[in-house]
Design goal:
Blueprint (H helix, E strand, L loop, with lengths): L2 H13 L2 H7 L4 H15 L4 E4 L2 E4 L1 H27 L4 E7 L5 H13 L4 E7 L15 E5 L7 E9 L1 E6 L29 H7 L13 H11 L3 E4 L8 E5 L6 E8 L5 H13 L3
């Protein structure tokens, strides 16, 4: 019974759908189905009841899920301890600038408790690089927001946050209960510098080409609105500074908080980071 097969099994057990599990594991569905069939043969029990709408765990499957999680958790601890003994117990985390997210605080506390001997190096970046240095090889894992070019990266969603329009408090639109992107069509928007990831730029400009002042940091976005009366997007739960207002944008998809790392990187500290982050952002 290989650890890889157990990871496959846990993914199917948590997703309760072979297609979603295959997508999560970055593999096609047929080899995943074959691996689970082989596992059922090895343990001598049916682990899933299959139907056209998905799968459900059988009683033996529920038992194996508990045991598999414990075995995989132990395997992670072994890898981390070996890395520490080899003097490799360090991880560099890229964080998007001005992050005051309570999820990040919970993650830091939980990661420190789990890995007290690991040195965590933090590289904070501005809004011009949503991968926080991943593409440049400057960090091991990024705690950031999508969307961005995911070429060569593995991206794991942690949470989705609604967004709103950032306006001056005396802007006529600030009195509205909600807005649509079209309501801001004739306005000047703050922009990221030329060369910024196009997917990232497009999302924060509401999917349209815009004109306006160039900004690089969250505080510069706020100042651009305050001083110039430009508009832009921000997280709905961000408390606006004095003189500013945030109005929900009802036709914009939410902003995803994600963990991202280089595809194929098997560093156990990264895997542990993602697992702890998943729990921290769902508390």
């Amino acid at each position: 019974m290989e650890l890889r097969t157990l990871r496959y099994f846990v993914a199917v057990a948590e997703e309760l759908h072979f297609g979603r599990a295959a997508s999560r594991l970055h593999m096609s569905q047929p080899p995943l189905s074959r691996a689970i069939k082989q596992l059922e043969t090895e343990v001598g029990a049916t682990l899933f009841d299959r139907s056209s709408t998905g799968v459900t765990l059988t009683p033996p499957g529920a038992v194996l899920l508990d045991e598999a999680r414990a075995l995989l958790d132990q395997a992670h601890r072994v890898r981390v301890r070996v890395a520490a003994a080899a003097g490799a117990a360090a991880i560099t985390v890229g964080i998007l600038g001005d992050s005051t997210d309570p999820g990040a605080t919970r993650l830091a506390d939980a990661y420190r408790r789990r890995h007290p001997g690991v040195e965590v190096r933090v590289r904070e970046t501005d809004l011009t690089d949503p991968t926080c240095g991943l593409h440049a090889g400057l960090v091991d894992v990024a705690l950031t927001r999508g969307p961005f070019d995911e070429t060569g990266l593995t991206v794991h969603a942690l949470r989705a946050d609604p967004v709103g329009a950032l306006l001056r408090a005396d802007d006529p639109l600030a009195r509205r209960d909600s807005l649509k992107i079209a309501d801001l069509a004739d306005r000047r928007w703050f922009l990221f510098p030329e060369g910024t990831d196009p997917l990232w730029q497009s999302y924060w400009n509401g999917g349209e080409p815009r004109e306006g002042p160039v900004v690089r940091a969250v505080q510069e976005c706020r100042q651009a609105v305050l001083w110039n009366g430009t508009v832009g997007m921000t997280l709905l739960d961000h408390e606006p500074s004095r003189g500013l207002a945030v109005v929900p944008l009802i036709d914009m998809p939410p902003s995803r908080v994600v963990a991202a790392w280089n595809e194929g990187d098997t560093n156990p500290l990264i895997r542990s980071f993602v697992r702890i982050a998943t729990a921290a952002y769902h508390d």
